[in-house]
Amino acid sequence: MLIEFLNSEQREIVEYENNSLVIACPGSGKTRTLVAKLIYEGAKLKKNEKIAAITYTNLAADEIGLRVNENCFDDSFYWGGTIHSLCTNWILKPFSLFIDELRFGYKLIDEDDAMEILDEIKQKHNFRENVNTRRGADGNFVEITTGSEGVLKEYDNRLKEAKLIDFDLVLFYSFKILLERKSVARNLSQIFKWILVDEYQDTQELQYLIIGEIIKARNNHTKILFVGDPNQGIYNTLGGVAKTKHELESSIGGYNIEEKSLNGNYRTTQEIIDKYRDFQLFGENIIARGSNKNNPSEISFRSDISVESLPEHILKVIMEIHNKRVPYSEIAVIAPRWFDLINVARRIKQIEPDVPLNAMGLSPLCRDDNNIFFHLSRLLLSSPSPDQILVRLKWAQILFDLLVERLPNSFESSFNNKSILKVINSFKSNNQVGIEFLKEGFNFFGSKIGVDFSTSLVFKDSLEEFERKCLKKQARNGTGDSISVYKSGFAKAGGVSFISTYKCKGLEYHSVIAFGMLWGYLPHWNEIFSSNIDENEVSKKLLYVISSRAKNNLYMIAESGRRTTRGTPLFPNRHLVEVFSERSV
Ligand SMILES: Nc1ncnc2c1ncn2[C@@H]1O[C@H](COP(=O)(O)OP(=O)(O)OP(=O)(O)O)[C@@H](O)[C@H]1O
């Protein structure tokens, strides 16, 4: 993404040398500009300096990584990931000794593990509503609703007793370290010349405070770029806030932040933009600027498809689009509930096994950046094709760094990322059971580097943990244990993407087929019944995000025949009905 491929507004943002906030509509090139900024500033860094690119999801971080790799072979000048992984890797892991509660060891738990503990406690307390475990700067929970106090208290005790750290505690302890040990914040500010925050509208208060501490530490030596779109702030139920310029300035110690914007949309046809603008809450008109701007679009809303015939209907739409020479990888199926996506994907596979599906959340592979078996697995499961070389070399480098960390002295001199990749590429197995295939691969790799992972004191626990989590996720998803399900977890796998509503941000497809557009699913009942959430706002934002993923065609479906657990029928999302009522489809 070189600077000459940007328009003048985008270029100005890239070349601007100070803090800025860019608010712009979907498809206006915010991510493209952020990646260009990353590369532009990367070229100016001094030795040991880096740039941090913070994204909301790991998927988005991978996407930025791919875009950087398209332009730079050596990408070591930047660090990319979620704010949780920034905190874990750069603050918590190296400096946990500074915190009394963490000094004698702790265990990080992911969202699944945290949810399991919380669900068990909720059941015990007979509490069915949503419980938010988000914390404030003092470590206390910030959203205690009527009746949830006992649940949260027990959750807190359970974590403390077992020395478990969930995502919210990662943020809290990181903030505490930065606050109490100014040298840590100064050190980070020395390393990170820039912090670039994508989708800033989903940043939580505590996350702003963490970023603010780093910026203040050396008087704005670290510069900041926030990019985002308040209309796409779909995580405000989780505490995401699109701060204003002045609020942002005060969270980084009063330093000036220049507000800038981008105009136009390079992704989508004008026809689709005009449709989704009805869901827009703030901002002005959006003009299509891409080469497809005047293409005819297929836009539809169907509420007459029954839940039973939904998979057949979606398959029919997919085939119609594909027969017009649109690659499968340019088609996305989006829905609010994973469970429904999995069912539809499974049924489509039964009817038409040859249609490639890429259901990232379907894979039982558990992402854990600190577990070498996750990194080893993605190398074993991804194909050594030419278009994957750069990304796999990068993954091999991460694996190499972790192995050097775990096996100091013995590993470094004999291997590098290329030789690791060579070893992995030479692994062959016909095993069709996902976890067995991986275990064979681990043994093979272990034998080549002289380590028996299953008995090694360094690796035994993480191997067991990895296996336990995969099997748990496999059982929960109900997708079976085949190797193909494990392989479905890669973003560029080339099939039709199945994505949940909350994970589709930042992505784009020729055609978007969204189903489950029902009041109660979108917005969710929890949002409808919560006294501090405006369900109409949530609904419009979600519809806006989904629709704005489409470049050319948009098919919305509110299938009939779905019911609540008490048997009450669900009805189509009311904003979709409003927007589509003027036009028959
Ligand atoms: N100046 C430009 N010229 C041509 N294409 C562009 C330009 N800027 C962006 N694009 C293309 O427009 C599409 C949308 O860009 P991008 O994903 O960066 O938008 P965004 O603002 O981040 O969108 P969203 O908010 O929906 O995530 C991409 O395919 C991108 O390559």
TrEMBL record:
<dbReference type="GO" id="GO:0043138">
    <property type="term" value="F:3'-5' DNA helicase activity"/>
</dbReference>
<dbReference type="GO" id="GO:0016887">
    <property type="term" value="F:ATP hydrolysis activity"/>
</dbReference>
<feature type="domain" description="UvrD-like helicase ATP-binding">
    <location>
        <begin position="3"/>
        <end position="269"/>
    </location>
</feature>
<protein>
    <recommendedName>
        <fullName>DNA 3'-5' helicase</fullName>
        <ecNumber>5.6.2.4</ecNumber>
    </recommendedName>
</protein>
<dbReference type="InterPro" id="IPR013986">
    <property type="entry name" value="DExx_box_DNA_helicase_dom_sf"/>
</dbReference>
<keyword id="KW-0413">Isomerase</keyword>
<dbReference type="Pfam" id="PF13361">
    <property type="entry name" value="UvrD_C"/>
</dbReference>
<dbReference type="GO" id="GO:0033202">
    <property type="term" value="C:DNA helicase complex"/>
</dbReference>
<dbReference type="Pfam" id="PF00580">
    <property type="entry name" value="UvrD-helicase"/>
</dbReference>
<dbReference type="GO" id="GO:0003677">
    <property type="term" value="F:DNA binding"/>
</dbReference>
<keyword id="KW-0347">Helicase</keyword>
<dbReference type="InterPro" id="IPR000212">
    <property type="entry name" value="DNA_helicase_UvrD/REP"/>
</dbReference>
<dbReference type="InterPro" id="IPR014016">
    <property type="entry name" value="UvrD-like_ATP-bd"/>
</dbReference>
<dbReference type="InterPro" id="IPR014017">
    <property type="entry name" value="DNA_helicase_UvrD-like_C"/>
</dbReference>
<dbReference type="GO" id="GO:0005524">
    <property type="term" value="F:ATP binding"/>
</dbReference>
<keyword id="KW-0067">ATP-binding</keyword>
<keyword id="KW-0547">Nucleotide-binding</keyword>
<keyword id="KW-0378">Hydrolase</keyword>
<dbReference type="InterPro" id="IPR027417">
    <property type="entry name" value="P-loop_NTPase"/>
</dbReference>
<feature type="binding site">
    <location>
        <begin position="24"/>
        <end position="31"/>
    </location>
    <ligand>
        <name>ATP</name>
    </ligand>
</feature>
<dbReference type="GO" id="GO:0005829">
    <property type="term" value="C:cytosol"/>
</dbReference>
<dbReference type="GO" id="GO:0000725">
    <property type="term" value="P:recombinational repair"/>
</dbReference>
<comment type="similarity">
    <text>Belongs to the helicase family. UvrD subfamily.</text>
</comment>
<keyword id="KW-0238">DNA-binding</keyword>
